[in-house]
Amino acid sequence: MNPFSLVVWFQVVAGVIAFGGIFIGAISFLYPDHSIELYQLMMHILNWDVRPIDYQGEMKRTRIMGALIFLISVAIIVILFRPQLIVPAS
To answer: What is the mean pLDDT of residues 25-52?
Structure first.
């Protein structure tokens, strides 16, 4: 097995996960109420009833977490596909 094919496979899988993180992070940052409703819907499927105690606080935390997920996912994309921007070649 070619060792580079494993590296390429890892880059593709990590890239897909990171692009998903960018999408989820952006949606959570821009529309935190939709993220909360989606979570409630997923838990309803499992027959769990979840409701935030402090809705405004939950909106704020969801927005913050969305921004963090977005930034971390962008950093992963940069590190995967443009590592010379982070660690210059010697």
So the answer is: 93
First to last CA, the chain: 29
- Smallest CA-to-CA distance from 1 within 9, 81, 13 is with 9
Cα-based distances in Å from 58 to 28, 63, 65, 74, 75? 11, 8, 10, 24, 26
| Phi, psi torsion values for 50, nearest 5 degrees | -120, 130
- HSE-CB for 66 with a 13 A CA cutoff: 20
Residue with tokens 């590592």: 83
The secondary structure element, H or E, covering residue 34 is helix 32-45
8 Å CB contact between 59 and 4: no
Q: Write down the domain spans for the chain.
A: 58-84
Residue 7: the pLDDT is 77
Q: pTM of the entire structure?
A: 0.78
CA distance 64 to 1: 43
